[in-house]
């Protein structure tokens, strides 16, 4: 039943959006193992999470969207700055 709901959600919001959630499953597994099983987080697990997070952010295009928004803000600020001068 869970797979049916999950696949219906993928169909509804798209594979690109659900990739974020798929790749955070190991992170939440790690967090809940610390909370419920009193496990300790090692340095290699943290490094793996950083690689996982950066892969998701670059793979989904989130970094490029942020860069484009900042670039547009700079252009708008420069435009209004020149008008005010």
List the helices and strands and how they pair.
Layout lengths: L1 H12 L1 H9 L1 H13 L5 H17 L2 H23 L1
Could you describe the 3D structure shown?
By secondary structure, the chain is an all-alpha fold. It is 87% helix and 0% strand. The protein has helices at 2-13, 15-23, 25-37, 43-59, 62-84. 0% of the residues are buried.
Task: Spell out the key features of this protein.
flat, single chain, 85 residues, mainly alpha
Beta content? under 5%
- If helices are DSSP runs of H or I spanning 4 or more residues, what is the number of helices? 5
Based on CA atoms alone, the radius of gyration comes out at: 20 Å
Specify the biggest β-sheet.
none
Quick overview:
With 85 residues, the protein is mainly alpha-helical. Helix content is 87%, strand content 0%.
